[in-house]
Design goal:
Blueprint: H1 11-17, H2 24-33, H3 41-50, H4 54-61, H5 71-78, H6 80-90, H7 94-112
Helix pairs in contact: 4-7, 5-6, 5-7
Amino acid sequence: MGILDSLENSPELKGMLGQLGAAVIPAVLGEVLGNGGQGGLSAIVAKLEQAGLGDQVKSWIGNGQNLPITADQLQQVLGSDTVKQLAARFNIPVDQLSKVLAQALPGAVDSASPDGKLPHTA
């Protein structure tokens, strides 16, 4: 199972999606976590840590409960231009995209690091 596969079946995420549709969020996360201009998972983790969100990131990679991140925090890390571009590409309102990504990202990083470590290919 890939990093994004479990997200399509997440009841919490499906409840938040509303008009977005369950198929869109894995594609958006693929852009953010893949090499879609953000540099991959390791680069996103590094950006989050540099922005002072190291405790959250450690909780996602570790085996305990995932600490939350806010939509505003995520938008600051990714950059508002990037969020706007993603929103336009997937035809999603910017504020809704940020909220859903903030909810989905901790679980996606957690799924990508089952042994408490980021994969070397991330």
